[in-house]
């Protein structure tokens, strides 16, 4: 469906809204003390997205718009139907079901929705550069806040009270120094914990994923203005976030940068190697808290299928499952995005790696039809995100990863290849 400029601006508004929502909520909570900005406002991004989805679907149905879907889109529809059917057989409470159904399906709903949107060449270039401008603002803001004393977060914005009010674990935080906003990775050099960039996200893990997209896409794209400046900006920002996912992605990107082209076989090899490493850690070291738990969760997510082929049930397992335990140490698929999915819906969760394999095949095929650098960029972006999905449960969150889903979806539209090939202004 050809996109009107007004809808393009709506996409841009959504991108800005999600990226700036956390800092807005923290600021408003510090000014008013109203928990509305802790418990309700964070969900408005999801409400906003699904409202737009319903409006567009209603428009398509009412005006009998012809929509042609490819094999990837069909598989996504099947997966979404499976997830919603799982509600009927789950023993979890409604709050756990609602939280997890959003976590394990929203990313594919977003990819499917944006794959229905056909942007012209000019519109796509505008979207790319608007997104990078916003990402650049988030990064520069992060640099500036790193120069400020901890009292900016603890006292002026009162982030500890915000975190305490929103914690489902009823935790009590006195300072962000005692949260993941400070890392122990450099304690052997500094003798104390070191601040991580949190910027407008007010949280480091999701910010790391956000910067990862921009760094990877800028490295291969030819449509990004001031590309070298952005590469330096996001590379430095990614390091200052101390995001292990970002650092790991740099090595993956390096492989494809040397290849200068997509390769599905290389992507498969990377995933297999990671799985074997995860299996070795799980078998010979066992469940352990910390960074290795992410590898363990990748393996245990598949391993549990032997005795629980249908999983434990929607909302019953995973990092925020009602009943399953041990996830913090990588047990039952914990700390892994794909592990969380398999733990809840079992073998049906294998549709996810199949979908991403089909996505890679699609982008690979279109690249050799168009030789557009944008399809190399989105291919590597998709590989990186799937690796993050394997090793981090935070990959299922909307806030840090929505930018991946928007661009993967848009370039999945079959008509985009004609619009991008040779830079046609269609």
Overview of this protein structure:
This protein has 19 helices and two strands. With 426 residues, the chain is an all-alpha fold. It has a domain at 71-155 and 204-268 and 350-423. The chain has a two-stranded antiparallel ribbon. Helix 1 runs parallel beside helix 6. The radius of gyration is 21 Å and the shape is globular. 45% of the residues are buried.
Strands ordered across the widest β-sheet: 1-2
Estimate the strand proportion.
under 5%
What series of H and E elements makes up the topology? Answer: HHHHHHHHEHEHHHHHHHHHH
Number of strands: 2
Q: How many H/I helices? A: 19
| Derived structural class | mainly alpha
The general outline is globular
- In whole angstroms, how far apart are the ends? 14 Å
Regions with little confidence, pLDDT below 50 for 5+ residues: none
Average residue pLDDT: 89
Rg for CA atoms: 21 Å
Q: Approximately how much helix is present in the residues?
A: 55-70%
In short:
This protein is an all-alpha fold and about 425 residues long. Helices cover about 65% and strands about 0% of the residues. It has a domain at about 70-155 and about 205-270 and about 350-425.
SSE diagram, text form:
Layout: H1 5-32, H2 36-39, H3 44-62, H4 71-86, H5 94-115, H6 121-146, H7 151-156, H8 159-166, E1 182-183, H9 187-190, E2 194-195, H10 204-220, H11 227-241, H12 244-259, H13 264-284, H14 292-303, H15 337-345, H16 351-370, H17 373-391, H18 398-412, H19 416-420
Antiparallel strand pairs: 1-2
Helix pairs in contact: 1-6, 4-5, 4-16, 5-18, 6-11, 10-11, 10-12, 10-17, 10-18, 12-17, 13-14, 14-15, 16-17, 17-18
